C-alpha cells in the first residue's frame, strides 16, 4: 500500500509527494517538462533544458500563477500555444486573445460566427469541408447520415453538420481537463472519431482508459500492422480521418508498412503513439526509441508533443493536415510522463479543410483537348473517390461523350454497367490521341503515363502531384469536383466520338465473352478464374470486395465489376500484402448489413492470419476466399520465365487454412472440386461468422500481365 503518494510500478510504497509517472516519488515543487523539478526553465523536445526561464517552447519567460501544462506556473488566464499567458477569452489561431468570440482563419475575431476557409466571416453554422457554411441539420456523407447512437462504427470522422459530429464536437472553444490521454480522447471526439484500432501497451494506458470511459469503440488486434490497415480501411471507405493507437517502440515499428501503404494511397490516417518518458530519455528505458526519424518519410507530418496542455492543439492541427488534399497519414507520439500528467487545455472545433481551387484556364485547356480529340479516353483514379467527385465524373463523361476506365479506388465511380464505363479494353489507351488521367499518379499501373502518341492531361487534387517525368498537354490541379464539372461545362468545338465508343464497346463485349471458358472451367485442379466465376453469381450489387494477394487478386481485379464507389479495396501501388483482414474489419464496421468478401492469396493469408481472432472476438462476420496454389505465384512464374526455374517461391501445398480459422473460433472448409465452390460460398454467406473457403487452385496457371512494374 502506498503511503500518501501514488504507488510505484512494482508495487512498493511511494513516500510523500505526488507520484511520478513511473510511480516513484515526485518532487513537491512544480515539475519541469522532463518530470524532474523545474529549475525555472522549460525543456527542449529531446529532454534537455532550454534556456530562458520558465515558459514558452521557444524559451521565453511566462508569468507566475496556476500550473501550466508543462508543470510550471502560469498566470490566472489560459495559456497560448507557446506557453505565454492570455486573458480569459477563447484564443485566436496564433494564440492571442480573441475577445470571447470564435476566430477567422487568419486569427482575427469573427463576430461570433463560424468562418469560411479563406478566413472571411461565414453566416450561421458549422463549416463544410469546402470552407462554406454547412447546414446545422443532419449532414449527408457519400450516403446517408449516421444514426445518433453512441457509435457509428465506421471508425472515421463524421462530416460537419452530422449528428455525430455535432454530438462530439463543441460549438466553440471550451476548456477540458485531465491526463494527456484524456485530452487526446477529447480532441479525437471533437473531430467525430468514435473508434480506435490498437494493440494494448503500457505507454498508451491513459488513452485506452479515457477512450473506454468515453464510450468509444476499441478494436484491439493481434499485430499493429492490422491496426493501421484497419484505420486506413476506415479512412478509405469513409473518406475521412481514422485513428490507430500504437504503443511505443515495436508497436510503432510494426505499424510502418501500414503507414507507407496509407501514404501511397493518400489515406488520412492519424497514428497516435506512446513514447518513452522524457525524464529518463537516453537512460535506456523500456522501448525507448525516437520514432520521428523513422516515420517522417511515410507521413505528411510527424511530431512529439512535449506539454500535456498542447495535446489537443497538436491533434487538431495534424487531423486537418491529414484530411487536406493531397491527403495522407500523420503521426503524433506522447511521452509517458507527458501522457500521465494532468493539465487544462482549450479544445477548439476542427479546422476547416479547403481543397485548392483549380485554375479555370487549365481546366478549359483540358476540356478542349478532350472534346476535340478523335479517340479520347478518361481514366478515373482513387482521388475522384476521395474528393467526392464521382457525380462530376459521370457529368464529364456524359457531357463530352468519353470512354472511361477506372484505376484502383476509382472503381465504381462510374458504375460498371454505365454505357461509357469500360474495363477489359484497356489497350484503347495505346490507340487514343488524348488521355485524361484524373486523380491518380502516372505510375506503373498506367504505363508511367506513356500512351503511344497520345497527348496526356494529368488532373490532380494538389499542384504537387502533377507528373514531372512525362510531358503533359494540360495539368489542372485542385478540387476534382470543380475540375471535372468545369470540363463538363465546355461549350466550345467538339468532335463526334460515337464511332470510337462503338468500336470500344464491341471490343469490350468480345473480351468479356472470351473470359467465359476460364470463368466456367470444369477441370481439376481448379482454375482460379472459376472461383471468381462462382463468386460473381452470388455477389450483391453493393458488396464490398477486398483484395489481398498477387495472382489470385489480379484475376479478381480483371474479372470482378464494381457498381458503386467506395466498394473495392486493394493494396494500392505500394503493393504491401497483409492488409486484408484490417480492411475487412473496417468494411464490416462501415457496412454492417452488406456482404464483405476478402479475397486472399495463400501467401498473403500468412501475414495476418492471427487477426482472424480479432474478427471472432469482435463478432465481425467476413467471408474469406483463399486461392490456394501452394506458392508465391506472382514471383514464381516471372522467375521461371527469366531464369528457367524458380527459387524460394513454394509454400506447403494443400494447407488447411480453414482449420486455422476454425481453431481461432471461426468456421470454414476446403474445396477441391469446382462443383463444390458455389455451395461452399452459400454456406459462407449464411454463416454469420468469420468463414474461410480454402480453394485449392492450379499452381501451373499463371496470370497474364503486361504491365511493367519498374
UniProtKB/TrEMBL annotation:
CDD domains: TPP_BZL_OCoD_HPCL (cd02004), TPP_PYR_POX_like (cd07035). Its cofactor is Mg(2+); thiamine diphosphate. Residues 1-174 are annotated as: Disordered. PROSITE patterns: TPP_ENZYMES (PS00187). Residues 363-485 form the Thiamine pyrophosphate enzyme central domain. InterPro entries: DHS-like_NAD/FAD-binding_dom, THDP-binding, Thiamin_PyroP_enz_cen_dom, Thiamin_PyroP_enz_TPP-bd_dom, TPP-bd_CS, TPP_enz, TPP_enzyme_TPP-bd. Keywords: Metal-binding, Thiamine pyrophosphate. Residues 180-292 form the Thiamine pyrophosphate enzyme N-terminal TPP-binding domain. It comes from the Bacteria. Residues 548-695 form the Thiamine pyrophosphate enzyme TPP-binding domain. Belongs to the TPP enzyme family. This is Acetolactate synthase-1/2/3 large subunit. It comes from Streptomyces rubradiris. The lineage of its organism: Bacteria, Bacillati, Actinomycetota, Actinomycetes, Kitasatosporales.
